[in-house]
Specification:
422 residues; alpha/beta; FAD/NAD(P)-binding domain; Polyamine Oxidase, Chain A, domain 2; 2 domains; six-stranded mixed β-sheet; five-stranded parallel β-sheet; 32% helix
């Protein structure tokens, strides 16, 4: 995966070997532009990460779905590389009521009405050009908090008072969707084969005051004509990279206006018992109307693997993550037991919680513009003096916050770099 030699005087330095950096590298290769890629982690893939050590089967810690699969480049990339794509578009679903019992037909109907009404209210506001908090436009109705938990905390990583209706409206259709049996993170990591990547190398400073750029790293200085920054907005906001001259005010404002949302994934491994849950099923339960976002919803036995994974996001996710992984796993397990019964504990082997909140290389899951500032995505992606460029999931247009958004952002930005350099 690591190239044998690295360019000593590249045209471009790519900072970050996630989906954006990898797609940019492939685009620059096609254009004949030399580059070196530096990655602070000891692996490539960024927030696309599949590992098999914990459970003995592939587990995606980050992105899991090839969303909007008909227009998602990872559909073709995955198939071409021999991965097994499993259609998740019409997956079965389990719904439980407030007491943790299977929902009645009446409860199902109320849930579906709430989902449709909230979606329509947000779409109307966004289509009308209103960039306001989603919480201010949605109806108050039974199962509203449950829908908000999915749409806000577990989809965008923020609660409805932090979710921009304009950003919601600008999002592309996410169906059909596929899961990858070997892990979507493994598909992304495969893109790095043969590329010049220097792992375990953090960038501490970028000086673009001269005719090119000087990139200071923990492994020395790299001089180039330009650099492409693909780190998360969380890392940019934390000031982990020093810029000379300082970033202009409009760029600093764009970074501040796209704070990181959070989605925790909590895989729970079992001994083969299926607990009455169908393979690939969504598992949802009613949330009290005054507690939107305070929940852990599940996907059961994805592609047949012997685990369910919980999803916890938004403010509740940040607070629970601060208590540590044991607390996160305990909470997820307690919610599952409430639905399927205490016998689940007899079959439970172990669990894990993703660390995106505390990970210094991410400091969150993905960017979510503040209401009123959905246009910050455009400013975040604007280059500085044809020397410092920016790409990543936060600048992914209609597929922002998704791995394909990062991929497309990296590719488009690399093509612009090639044009500018020529």
């Amino acid at each position: 995966m690591l190239a044998q030699s690295l360019p000593t005087n590249p045209d471009v330095v790519i900072i970050g070997a996630g989906a954006a950096g990898l797609s940019a590298a492939r685009a620059l290769t096609k254009k004949g532009v030399s580059f070196v890629m530096v990655e602070a982690a000891r692996r490539i893939g960024g927030r696309a990460y599949t590992e098999s050590d914990s459970f003995g089967v592939p587990v995606d810690h980050g992105c899991s779905w090839i969303s909007g699969a008909n227009n998602n480049p990872f559909s073709n990339i995955g198939r071409a590389a021999g991965f097994d794509l499993v259609d998740h578009t019409s997956a079965p679903a389990h719904l439980f009521d407030l007491e943790g019992k299977p929902a009645s037909d009446t409860e199902w109907a109320a849930y579906e009405r709430a989902w449709g009404a909230i979606d329509r209210a947000m779409a109307r506001a966004g289509q009308a050009g209103r960039d306001v908090p989603a919480a201010t436009v949605i109806p108050d109705m039974p199962y509203g908090a449950t829908v908000q938990s999915w749409m806000g905390a577990m989809d965008y990583g923020v609660d409805f008072d932090q979710l921009s209706t304009a950003d919601y409206w600008n999002g592309a259709e996410d169906q059909p969707s596929f899961l990858v049996r070997q892990g979507l993170g493994a598909v992304v990591a495969g893109m790095g084969d043969g590329l010049p990547v220097r792992l375990g190398t953090s960038v501490t400073a970028i000086d673009y005051s001269g005719p090119g750029v000087r990139v200071e790293t923990t492994d020395g200085t790299i001089r180039a004509k330009a650099c492409l920054v693909t780190v998360s907005v969380g890392v940019l906001a934390a000031g982990h990279i020093r810029f000379t001259p300082a970033l202009p005010v409009w760029k600093q404002e764009a970074i501040a206006d796209i704070p990181m949302g959070l989605l925790l994934k909590v895989p729970l491994l079992f001994d083969g018992a299926r607990l009455g849950l169908e393979e690939n099923a969504w598992v949802t339960y009613r949330v009290p109307e005054d507690s939107a976002g305070e929940a852990c919803f599940f996907v059961a036995w994805p592609t047949g693997h012997p685990y369910v994974f919980g999803n916890i996001g938004g403010r509740f996710g940040w607070a629970l993550s601060a208590e540590g992984p044991v607390a996160v796993v305990d909470y997820a397990m307690s919610q599952l037991v409430r639905l399927v019964g205490s016998d689940a504990r007899k079959h439970f082997l172990r669990g894990l919680a993703t660390d995106w909140a505390e990970n210094p290389l991410t400091l969150g899951a993905y960017g979510a513009p503040r209401p009123g500032r959905s246009a910050a995505r455009t400013d975040l992606g604007r280059a500085l003096d044809r020397r410092v460029y920016f790409a990543g999931e936060a600048t992914g247009g209609s597929v922002s916050a998704l791995v394909n958004g990062a991929y497309l952002s990296g590719r488009v930005t690399a093509q612009k770099i090639a044009r500018d350099l020529s």
